[in-house]
Amino acid sequence: MPTLDVVTAGNRKAGSVDLDPSIFEAPVRPHLFHAEVRRQLAKRRSGTHSTKNRAAVSGGGIKPWKQKGTGRARQGTIRAPQWAGGGVVFGPVPRSYEHALPKKVRRAALRAALSHQFREGNIKVVDELGLEEYKTKRVAKLLRDLSLEDAPVLIVIAAEDPFLERSARNLANVSVLRVAGLNVYDVLRHERLLIDRGALAALATRLGKAGEDA
What we know:
Blueprint: E1 3-7, E2 13-18, H1 21-24, H2 30-44, H3 103-119, E3 123-126, H4 136-145, E4 153-157, H5 162-167, E5 174-178, H6 184-189, E6 192-196, H7 197-207, H8 209-213
Parallel strand pairs: 1-3, 3-6, 4-5, 4-6
Antiparallel strand pairs: 1-2
């Protein structure tokens, strides 16, 4: 069974913790990373791009010149696509880029991402992360004490913690996510993961075999 040392906020050892092997020793499958990250980023696209076709462009209610006798090609409206300022042919319209991915595939991708970070030695478990006030300097000091100030860090907590979440908001390359919102894209784009000890139990509930069978 995989284990990790648990440290205090001052980077002193406070014991060790057993990790769920189904989460932190899962097979690492890069193709799952690609599929899930692609789904996540596609869902975030606003899809508000739009162009006007010849029916939507204003003006052009009359023929620009008579049908015959001018020596020029016949034209029915100045809003036809071949005219400057005319309608666009097959232009983009508002749409959703979201697409589905099976729930089991998404869970397997997140397990693989966490297992990858564990194998690379990028996960640190801290005994307690709670703050008692809104103070960005406190979070910055915590990361310095844990030797995590030089890399993008993802802090994982079990539940809502307004003091920590808002205090870390102004720090570059630092993100805070609750276990319920943990995702493949954020796990992979941060070099280091700092996980609150209480979040491990929530992770086991969400991703462990027991949670899968429920």
